[in-house]
Amino acid sequence: MIIVLKPEATAETAREILDRISEKGLKPLHMPGSERVVLGALGDERVLAELALDSHPMVESLKPILAPYKLVSRELHPHDTVVRFGKTAIGGRGFSVIAGPCAVETRDQMRNTARFAKAAGAHGLRAGAFKPRTSPYAFQGHGVEGLKILRETGDEFGLPVVTEVMESADVGVVAEYADALQIGARNMQNYSLLKEVGRARKPVVLKRGMAAKVEDLLLAAEYLLAEGNEQVILCERGIRTFETATRNTLDLNAIPYIKQKTHLPVLVDPSHGTGVRDFVIPMALAAAACGADGILVEMHENPAVAWSDGAQSLYPDGFEQLMAALRPIAEAVGREIA
Ligand code: PEP
Ligand code: MN
């Protein structure tokens, strides 16, 4: 419920209403604006009704938040959220490109890849140290050693770094080394991990689960915000459908939908979304055209020898082509690539 106070309402009135909301076991929200104070109450609608706020003399209007996700919804928060990622920002007018290999393999592989990424204009570096692999026999990542290499590489090239955290117990150590925590598709509905990451004071990239509806993604994001972490970036990375021609089906419908229903920035991952190098550039361009706030894309100094996801990783020259092709498209839809 959104509670708009009258312009003459005092700070004491706001406090009194917020206290009543808390006493009922509901979550109070305080959103002071330049013209008037807006309050929010989240929780059981029947309990909310008991507050009888419609008859409060200082309440101008009450508006229910119809979406099942509340904090994430544009109804509650009409303006776009811009998330800081190192020195860059995700959301707003800029279009962000976060690039890097699927996994941290070696120091040289990371440095060479980051050098190319930076030279071509990437804003951030991605790479997994904890890898959720479909097969238990596949490379699982270097763990903390990988985090250290990623951090050093990011610092050397002036790129903020994002990497996946797979378990609640690792949130602390990943937050120590990374500028943003990634929650992977396989963990999108791992609610204890979501709560733990929600308590971390670090930006989060939350990927859509491969069998998750957009609403499931937004409710997963709600867990992060409900724990107090508002620095959430969503990521569409393709879903499983009956189509098997490509690794996943990149659901670009989700982008305008998410932009309309929520205030959170959203990235597209055309690498996992297609699984095919040749399709990464066209789908990245489509992502920019349909209103995404950026892309998370796999590139490798030499994908032919990549330890994972080589088939969908761009070569450095492909990444350069992508950056050149993105600029006019971003501009055509009113965005700029810094
Ligand atoms: C990744 O980005 O490295 C990754 C594992 O992606 P997803 O969780 O989308 O499969
Ligand atoms: Mn990958």
TL;DR?
The protein is built from 11 helices and 14 strands. The protein has 338 residues and is an alpha/beta fold. α5 links the parallel β9 and β10.
Core attributes:
single chain; 338 residues; alpha/beta; Alpha-Beta Plaits; TIM Barrel; 8-stranded parallel β-barrel; 4-stranded antiparallel sheet; 11 helices; 14 strands; 18% strand; binds phosphoenolpyruvate; binds manganese (II) ion
Note the topology.
Layout: E1 2-5, H1 11-23, E2 27-32, E3 37-42, H2 45-50, E4 59-63, E5 83-85, E6 88-90, E7 96-100, H3 107-120, E8 124-126, H4 144-157, E9 161-164, H5 171-177, E10 180-183, H6 191-199, E11 204-207, H7 214-226, E12 232-236, H8 254-261, E13 266-268, H9 270-274, H10 277-289, E14 294-298, H11 316-332
Parallel strand pairs: 7-8, 7-14, 8-9, 9-10, 10-11, 11-12, 12-13, 13-14
Antiparallel strand pairs: 1-3, 1-4, 2-3, 5-6
Hetero groups in this structure are: phosphoenolpyruvate, manganese (II) ion
The percentage helix is 25-40%
* Overall geometry: elongated
Using only CA atoms, what is the Rg?
21 Å
Low-confidence stretches: none
Report the sheet with the most strands, covering strand number, pairing sense and barrel closure: 8 strands, parallel, barrel
Strand order of the largest sheet: 7-8-9-10-11-12-13-14
Total number of strands: 14
CATH architecture of the largest domain, by name, is Alpha-Beta Barrel
Provide the structure class: alpha/beta
Mean pLDDT: 96
Q: Please, how many domains?
A: 2
Tell me the fraction of residues in β-strands, as a range: 15-25%
If helices are DSSP runs of H or I spanning 4 or more residues, what is the number of helices?
A: 11
